[in-house]
Amino acid sequence: MKRGFTLIEVIMGLFLLGLITVSVLPIANGAFYNLSKQKTRYNMIYTGEMVVERIKAFDCETSKELFVYDVEIGQLIEEFRGNDYIEISLDKEGYDYPIKIIKENKSDSLWKIAVIVYNKDGGKSDSVELKAYLPKK
Length: 137
Prior knowledge:
It is a single chain. The protein is of the alpha+beta class and about 140 residues long. Helix content is about 45%, strand content about 25%. It has 2 helices and 6 strands; from the N terminus they run H-E-E-H-E-E-E-E. A 4-stranded antiparallel sheet has the order 3-4-5-6, covered by helices on one side. Strands 1-2 form a two-stranded antiparallel sheet.
């Protein structure tokens, strides 16, 4: 009566286990890398949308405490009113994603706002740009 496995069976089993492991590990590593990259991109998009929505929501009488990072929205709007074209960079050391806000006049009653959010770490998702057209405030 035969008990256990022969040496050849054990070696073949280890070979197949190693082959499966070698093929699965790079796929899992790539999936985790892509998840991390997508999380960064979604955070950048969220930050850009937050800036655009806060600028859109600003009202002189009711919006006294709206901020983008440490800059009050009222100060940004005053800068926008005084210039036909302006670029404002918010890229201090403590920010997760530096921002550049570009405002230009499209007509007598319309502003074009572009918000560019940068990734400090670089990589393939190095920036996200959002654009909006707003009535002059």
